[in-house]
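Dear support,

Our group has been running a series of protein-ligand predictions, and this particular one with nicotinamide-adenine-dinucleotide is the one our PI (initials K.S.) wants archived with full inputs and outputs. We had some confusion internally about which version of the output was final, so please treat the block below as the authoritative record. The input we submitted was:
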Amino acid sequence: MTRKQLEEVCVIGAGQMGSGIAQVCATSGYRVKLFDVNQTQLEKAKSGIYKSCEKLVEKGKLSLESFTILKEKLCFETKISELKNADIVIEAIIEDEAKKKEIFSELNKVVKKTGIFASNTSSISIARLAEASRRPSQFIGLHFMNPVPLMRLVEVVTTLGTNAQTLEISKEFVTSLHKEITLSKNYPGFVVNRILMPMINEAFFALQDGLSSKEDIDKAMKLGTNQPMGPFELADFIGLDTCLSIMKVLYEGTSDSKYRPSLLLQEYVENGYLGRKVGRGVYSYS
Ligand code: NAD
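Confirmed final output from the archive:
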């Protein structure tokens, strides 16, 4: 298969990342099936995608023509059997290794043999997911950034098993979405989250140690290091449960104590403060 023969993209998981990936693929002209086990989530995804496109059209960042194309090209699925013709599957379900392995094992039974498998995981071993899929040579990490329609980077992660054709097609595919590529090896957190997440985790340690207030920690990092968001604002945006899962993968995957998750971050998640996803985040916890 070549990139030009790549017509159907199936995205697994209609949360914030899956919705964004589906949106960008459909506005780029691919036929897209967005799959989720939860029908309500699919309905939420549909209205979120349409709203996002309307805003982008208003701002002149998306043509009306691309929005019309999306409406024709994007459909929503709850039946996994409907994904059988996928040329590429991009998995974006929750950051849980066992759940991801389970879905890849199922997808292998359903999707045609030439289909490429990609995971949008933030940190989990691409090699272990590839093994569960039983398609190690056709497996790759495509780590999109949040929010997908606005962020320009996709971190491409290969394993020793990824074949040259899969890498080549994946790179051309990402470029066709008007995104930039960086290449990373398969290591916990890859590059972006190996550097970003310890910073966010450190902000929780600083708060836990009583160094400063939430507001001032965010303000210090925003104005002092010229980042568009402070670490707590960003953590809420990513999802505190996702941040905690990534820190656990870094800690367990490296056995290095510098990656241990802050107790405060764990406390937030245990109490259901997951950030923007549920509307209760760092600033609403006292
Ligand atoms: P999310 O919680 O918003 O969405 C997850 C979705 O997966 C939900 O809609 C849920 O219903 C669905 N789901 C769960 N199990 C499923 C299954 N077995 N089959 C189909 N759907 C299933 O999560 P998210 O923030 O979109 O993150 C998704 C993935 O993207 C994670 O691996 C995360 O680490 C990664 N990621 C997240 C960000 C971020 O900023 N949030 C950035 C880059 C990568």
